Structure formats: structure tokens, C-alpha cells
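U., I forgot to send this yesterday:
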Amino acid sequence: MSKAQELLEKEAHQVAVRLSRADHTRIEALVKAGLYRSSADFLREAVRDKLREMDVVSLQDVSLEEAERLIGEYLDAHPGARFASEIADALGLEYGLVFKAVRRMLERGVVRKGKP
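Result:
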């Protein structure tokens, strides 16, 4: 075993998991189709996807005026139509605050509605 493999083995952790026959069959079909190198490869990716999905989102506590400034900067850096929810997620702001700020920015003509 090479030094690199030894190091990987020392840092990696193995977890046993029981799957239903149906889940196992579906995973094996993906492996046979060449989408994954092995069932372990599929499971590692599935775990990483789930962990990314579960990342805690921290929200900034900012004033309405600060939210408008941040939204303006975001729109300058990301031209084109954007959903308010997309902006809220990108900036870590509460949805309600972003919707209120965008509404005010629309009323003042700072931003305009995109075409559906």
C-alpha cells in the first residue's frame, strides 16, 4: 500500500448501511450504466449532496435601507432578471425583508420588474 493510500485509509471512516433491495437495485443500475464507478461512489456523492442541502443558513440582521443597498450591489454585480428569493438566499437576508426592500425600490424606480 502506498503512503498516499495509507494516509487516506487513516483519515477515512467507514459506515455500514442497510438498503432495501429496490434501492440497491437502482444504485447498481446506475453503476452498470456508467454513471458511477461503484455503489460506494454513489453513496459518497449522495451523502455530500445531503450535507450541502442541510447547511445552516445564517441570516444577516440588517435595516431596510441596508438591505436596499446590498440588493442594489448584488444586482449591479449580477445583471439580468432575478427573483427576490434568489437575492435573499444569495445575500443571507430574510425573505420578507427582501420583498419589502424590492417593493420600495420598484416604487422609487431604482429597479424594474422583469418580463415573465
